[in-house]
Amino acid sequence: MQRTNSIVQPPAFGNLITVLSIDGGGIRGLVPAIILEFLETELQKLDGEDARIADYFDIIAGTSTGGLITAMLTAPDENRRPLFAAKDIKNYYLQKCPKIFPQDCNMVTKVVKNVTGPLYDGKYLHESIRKKLKDIKLGDTLTNIAIPTFDIKRLQPIMFSSYEIEEKPYMNAKLSDICIATSAAPTCLPPHYFETNHKGETHEFNLVDGGVAANNPTLVAMGEIAKQLIRRNLDFPLPQSLEYRRYLVISIGTGECKMEGGKYTASEASKWGFFGWWYNANGSCPLLDILTQASTDMVDIHLSVIFKALNIETNYLRIQEDGLERTLSPLDRATKENLECLIEAGERLLTKKVSTVNLENGKFIPYRNETNAEALIEFAKKLSNEKNLRELKSPRLPKSNPSFFLDTKTIYGAPKKMSIA
Fold first, then answer.
1. At 23, is the secondary structure helix, strand, or coil?
2. How confident is the model at residue 419, as a pLDDT?
3. According to the per-residue pLDDT averaged within each range, which of 105-119, 126-140, 348-362 is highest?
4. CB 70 within 8 A of CB 145
5. Do residues 26 and 332 touch, judged by C-beta distance below 8 A?
6. What whole-number distance in Å separates Cα of residue 20 and Cα of residue 30?
7. Residue 98: how many CB atoms within 10 A of its CB?
8. 34, 43, 139: which is closest to 88 by C-alpha?
9. CB neighbours of residue 17 within 10 Å
10. Three-class secondary structure of residue 387 per DSSP
């Protein structure tokens, strides 16, 4: 089951299992773009200017716009290096989003248009993704990835995971098709149909946005690793890989509107009929917002509790902005002013304290006395140490002293080592 073409040395040669997850959210993908640029810059300070996000994570998962970012970070160029540096993602969004989501209709026209079909035809999005990703397939990515979608014909989630393609070769679809599918938000963009063919057998997919199944794909990523443990993948030695203490997880959100007053009220929603639930005066889709946000926060709550119970809170970092203004929350409002405000929101988020969602009121509350930027700096150090340890111990690379370290155990995410040289 091992992937031999991944540039990341497997966890068998290290102490941690590294996971990166990126939420869905349309143009709000600018928020994680800012966070990822900061993280990659810190990694470059440690390991040189050629360092890239894909060099450090065993799996990167992304939904919708997060799936597109995942592809950008892991798709190979002709030199088998990432097509995009993290710093390039921001400019890509600024250039492409106004053309993907043209703001050339007034509110009445939008409502009428949306009654008869999706608000946008998706042609520019499809063309730009295909032009950039060309014929790159899921199995070509530089590290393992997982991108959720939802099949409306089968009424079930479909997870495109590079771990799965040896077991299910028909899932080795073009990365462009996967990105188009996971971004196909109902009412906003059309569903995406494509086929794959393996040994003469055709497999068809009728897909919409993965956010209806897993807008926060962190558990999807961890679930894909769990499958490899079940299948006795030698990249994940047992029993160590069964321990949550081995996981180092960064989960990045795209922002929410949970400021004072909230986004919707029972008073206004009590007047909604069919159209009210599907289309709001501020341009958002209340029903879709509610469904995606519910799953997003539940994943964070679940993981926050587990990592806290195990006293390894510093191994899990959730970075999310819960104070977006209403005008910034729609996934398609790609005006110049809104895009610039989202960049500012991402930059402010770096200066905020590390927080977690409160189940009682839904708001994010600080629980560590450090900023998100400071936490990312510490994570960069852990990621760099893990990468260097794996490369030292891996048989793929020459080692001057193969008995340099003997691993004992991991406590609070910090590997203990004992020299025996």
1. coil
2. 34
3. 126-140
4. yes
5. yes
6. 16
7. 17
8. 34
9. 24
10. helix
Range of 214-223, 301-310, 350-359 with top mean pLDDT: 214-223
Around Cβ 20, how many Cβ atoms within 10 Å?
A: 31
HSE toward the beta carbon, residue 343, CA cutoff 13 A: 15
How far is the C-alpha of 354 from the C-alpha of 372, rounded, in Å? 5
Residue 207, φ and ψ in degrees, nearest 5 = -120, 150
- DSSP state, 356? E
- Give catalytic residues, as residue numbers: 64, 209
DSSP 208: E
Task: Find where tokens 């941690």 sit.
Answer: 16
pTM: 0.87
Write out the two tokens for 13. 């040669």
Structure tokens at 44: 């470059």
Q: Supply the mean pLDDT for the chain.
A: 85
Q: Which of 174, 362, 354 is nearest to 256 (CA)?
A: 362
Coil, helix or strand at residue 205: strand
DSSP reduced 3-state for 120: coil
Tokens encoding 342 = 């989202």
One-letter amino acid of 117 = G
**Nearest Cα residue to 76 out of 222, 219, 214, 175:** 175
CA distance 416 to 414: 6
For residue 283, the tally of other CB atoms under 10 A from its CB is 18
Tokens coding 418: 């004992």
Among 361, 359, 257, CA closest to 308: 359
Query: Rounded to the nearest 5°, which phi and psi values hold at 355?
Result: -130, 165
Please report where in the chains the tokens 């989003």 appear, as a residue: 97
Burial of 223 (0-12, 13-18, 19+ CB in 10 A): middle
What are the tens digits of pLDDT across the range 282-320?
A: 666 777 777 777 777 788 888 888 888 888 888 999 999
User: How far is 19 from 159, CA to CA, in rounded Å?
Assistant: 16
CA–CA separation, 68 vs 129, rounded Å? Answer: 9
